[in-house]
């Protein structure tokens, strides 16, 4: 008679940890780049992740994070000299992606300050202006914003800014309104783009907004995305700005504004890739833990299909933004290439985020489960820094030779 052998209780199955770097492209980074990213990841996971949902729900900025943010000393990444962090465009992108993997608002706050505001001065400022403004901004003692969009002028900013600049002696007088300006309700320095009434060209101005009479900001309320970033509507009534604060070296027309935007559209591609990574990792964890019909939902074929589709989008976006970084570091990235990457990655992000939200069922619409916030924030990334349609018009003009801008 056969004797039944006692079966040893099997050890609990070790599940693979959620990992959005499926093609191991972190292995291609230098030791220095990896060290920086490790620092950013530690900051985002230990300081930002535990508190960000509360601030997002409350529509408030976490000022309590600023001291630790300053200690990271990252402001001015990609800008050489003037106390800035420096480094390659790849590093600029990687930091944005790493921040957005935990929270897109924090990545945006930093992108507006370091990329748009400091970037405008670095790209279009004179030597004196760089020496004066960049060091305190690199130390994050002064925080900046970037004022281009207006209440009645969004996509058409290239041709139709209504904010005016009038030259009188050694002063410029600014009049008009700006809308959607990130960081504006509390920051120190506003880069304002306005049309010179004399030659009809767009020029950039550094405005010390807290001390310039006639400059006021109203916080925008009731947003459903990037709620942690404080956006403002700026009103300028006869604001007097010295000639020394006009971005003198390279802001003679909207072409120069577009040079700044090229860099930041590039950045949005990285941010939106990070958003997908964060949501995907949370979705994998949920699929491994959530039981239905007595089994983890991650063991169902249709759920695995959804996860594979998300990972495909993420990996495609990572490869695309990595190539834009190579072009940027070689000084070859064109507006059209930045536009294609911004449009493609933000569109894929909406797709990835809707699958992640769906995978969590009802919990996908609860902020507490760390997917809903990404889902909502992806909408803002899709539209800001130029909408999907605007990016495709830029690409369409490049590939056909015909401008379809109206
Ligand atoms: C969260 C957030 C933060 C932002 N931060 C800043 C900031 O810090 N600084 C700043 O200056 N701006 C900022 N913006 C503004 C942003 O860049 C604009 O919202 C964006 O450029 C679109 O402009 P709009 O909202 O006025 O839309 P509109 O230009 O009114 O467009 C509405 C719709 O029409 C489409 N459309 C317009 N023209 C055409 C056309 N010719 N052909 C086909 N379709 C067209 C657009 O694609 C869009 O779908 C921010 C926006 C958001 C949402």
How is this structure best described in words?
The chain is an alpha+beta fold. Helices cover 49% and strands 14% of the residues. The chain is built from eleven helices and nine strands. The strands form two sheets. Strands 1, 2, 3, 4, 5, 6 and 7 form a seven-stranded mixed β-sheet that branches. β2 (164-168) and β3 (171-182) form a beta hairpin. α7 packs antiparallel against α8 (301-329) and α9 (335-359) packs across α11. The longest helix has 36 residues, at 254-289. It is elongated. It starts with 30 loop residues before the first helix and ends in a 6-residue tail after the last helix. The model has no long low-confidence stretch (mean pLDDT 95). Flavin-adenine dinucleotide is lined by residues 112, 146-149, 154-155, 180-182, 226, 231, 380, 383-387, 389-390, 406.
